[in-house]
Amino acid sequence: MSVTFKVNGQSTTVDVSSDTPLLWVLRDVLDLKGTKFGCGIGQCSACTVQLDGEPQRACQIPISSMEGMEVTTIEGLSSDGSHPVQQAWMEVDVPQCGYCQAGQIMTAAALLARIPHPSDTDIDREMNSHLCRCATYLRIREAIHRAATIVVTE
């Protein structure tokens, strides 16, 4: 099946089986390795990307549903790590192993696009589906608050 969609602002066409998950198209066909495979059943959220600006689990989306859609991966958030969420992640020293961080960052960026100054409750609600084995949840919350100030002041 041939599907045309945008990835990080660039139109792309792929020819793969219609039931191939978006995750594997990104990683194996388009060589975008930032989106991670975690559980494969949509429970850990390590594979989160933004579809038309909304966080979605790439392991659960068949490529057949992607025609005309726009995907942003961690590589497309910023080419040099200058996105406010990425800056805050580094300032607060969120990552330990780092495996889940791309998915966390993609969800946090979408949250801040919708709610520029989220409360702890907003953050907890949005980030609740992300599993972090290192348990950096409090630093994640702190980094999202920090990113909100970067968005406003810089």
Word description of this protein:
- Helices cover 39% and strands 15% of the residues.
- By secondary structure, it is an alpha+beta fold.
- It has two domains: 2-76, Beta-grasp domain (Ubiquitin-like (UB roll), Roll), CATH 3.10.20.30; 84-153, DNA polymerase, domain 1.
- Strand 3 (48-51) and strand 4 (54-57) form a beta hairpin.
- Helix 3 (84-92) crosses helix 6.
- The model has no long low-confidence stretch (mean pLDDT 94).
Compose a concise summary of this entry.
The chain has helices spanning 22-29, 74-77, 84-92, 101-114, 120-127, 137-153; strands at residues 2-7, 10-15, 48-51, 54-57, 70-72.
Describe the strand arrangement of the main beta sheet, using strand numbers: 2-1-5-3-4
Radius of gyration: 15 Å
CATH architecture group name of the largest domain? Roll
The first-level CATH class of the largest domain is given as Alpha Beta
Largest sheet: 5 strands, mixed
What's the count of strands?
5
Q: Find the structural class using helix and strand composition.
A: alpha+beta
How many structural domains?
Answer: 2
Write out the CATH superfamily name of the largest domain. Beta-grasp domain
What share of the residues does DSSP label as strand, in percent? Answer: 5-15%
Order of helices and strands: EEHEEEHHHHH
Straight-line distance between termini: 44 Å
Helix content: 25-40%
CATH fold field value of the largest domain: Ubiquitin-like (UB roll)
